[in-house]
Amino acid sequence: MALDSLVERRHDLPEWRAFRSSAGRWWATREQPYGEAAEKAGAWRTVDGDDELALARAIAEQESIAYLACPPVPEQLAVLVERQLVVLGQMYPAWRIERLTDAYGVPAGWRGTRDIPLTPAESAAGLVPVVEAVDAPALLMWLSAQDEIAHQTRYATGEP
Q1: Alpha carbon 158 to chain centroid, angstroms
Q2: pTM of the model
Q3: Sheet of 46-49: strands edge to edge?
């Protein structure tokens, strides 16, 4: 992921403005403040991260806090889910992220599926082809853990 890609794809997160400080740290601020309930729950309007991935995680965390503090009305829910899919997809481009539903169309969790098949050695190292979770923050936790294993096994770079 290029360092400026979050800024270039600002249309995917229109509520947030991302920028880099002169020291090279990533920052983002929300164009509009959260509501009172979200702020009381701990949602921050400005976040930072060591790199673009850390910043995207911080934004996703704040959006989740705000969502839990004041769940949207049904008309807003589809927009929120789509935004979560966009953010998770940007954070984890090697995964296909999808929202699961039951037979009646009721939300039933989240799934991330790897785009590239795993070798037996990668599987033995703890990488899995599919991760499922009950909500977006739980999926984020599992994908982050898988990224750490992938980094250690050099799955993402394809190096031996």
Answers
A1: 23
A2: 0.52
A3: 16-20, 26-30, 46-49
